[in-house]
Write a structure and sequence with these properties.
The structure holds two protein chains of two kinds. By secondary structure, chain A is an all-beta fold. Chain A has strands spanning 4-6, 9-12, 17-24, 36-40, 47-51, 55-56, 64-69, 72-78, 87-95, 98-101, 105-109. In chain A, the strands form two sheets. In chain A, strands 2, 4, 5, 6, 9, 10 and 11 form a seven-stranded mixed β-sheet that branches. Chain B is built from no helices and eleven strands. The chains are: A mainly beta, B mainly beta.
């Protein structure tokens, strides 16, 4: 079965820029996988950040952006803030009505 | 305002069947652009997509859990039901339902924690 890969953890300084990635165990991620990104803080349901590769969900600050970088989907946070410290998940559409989540990235802002 | 709310047992015994209900509001389950998925998250672990039902009643399931899952909907009641058979302690998780709009999940329900223990 296809595995969606994410960095287990990442650290960024306040005000800094960080790029989290979302790849495949085999093959390249393209827009055809409709990558989307979700932010989750402890005890809360996930919140949609980015969908269809690079479209920000309503109310999401423009410091969050999505793209394809090389063979992976990417979530970039520009000007990181303390309350960006969260878990971030990507999910890819595999076709035939199937989706696969990545293992998530725990982002620390310090 | 679109909302989804999960309901079901807090505790189930090993080998029992779990039945969860997702009650939606603010949209119709017959809307062609939308569907509902179930997703779970074991404590401290990652999200895992389980099953999806489309507006036309087509269904899809996680390959690894397909034999144990059944998803259905009652459009008149605005409810989507997930059943999972032969529950095991490793199935202990928070179970979420989420609206699928085209190809992304939004919004999500608050989740319901299900513990499997004798």
């Amino acid at each position: 079965q296809t595995v969606v890969t994410q960095e287990p953890s990442f650290s960024v300084s306040p005000g800094g820029t960080v790029t989290l990635t979302c790849g495949l165990s085999s093959g390249s991620v393209s827009t055809s996988y409709y990558p989307s990104w979700y932010q989750q803080t402890p005890g809360q349901a996930p919140r949609t950040l980015i969908y269809s590769t690079n479209t920000r969900s309503s109310g999401v600050p423009d410091r969050f952006s999505g793209s394809i970088l090389g063979n992976k989907a990417a979530l970039t946070i520009t000007g990181a803030q303390a309350d960006d410290e969260s878990d971030y998940y990507c999910v890819l559409y595999m076709g035939s009505g199937n989706w696969v989540f990545g293992g998530g990235t725990k982002l620390t802002v310090l | 305002q679109v909302t989804l709310k999960e309901s079901g047992p807090v505790l189930v015994k090993p080998t029992e069947t779990l039945t969860l209900t997702c009650t939606v509001s603010g949209f119709s389950l017959s809307n062609a652009r939308m569907g509902v998925s179930w997703i779970r998250q074991p404590p401290g672990k990652a999200l895992e997509w389980l099953a999806h039902i489309f507006s036309n009643d087509e269904k899809s399931y996680s390959t690894s859990l397909k034999s144990r899952l059944t998803i259905s909907k009652d459009t008149s009641k605005s409810q989507v039901v997930l059943t999972m058979t032969n529950m095991d302690p490793v199935d202990t998780a928070t179970y979420y339902c989420a609206r699928m709009l085209y190809n992304w999940f939004d919004p999500w329900g608050q989740g319901t924690l299900v513990t499997v223990s004798s």
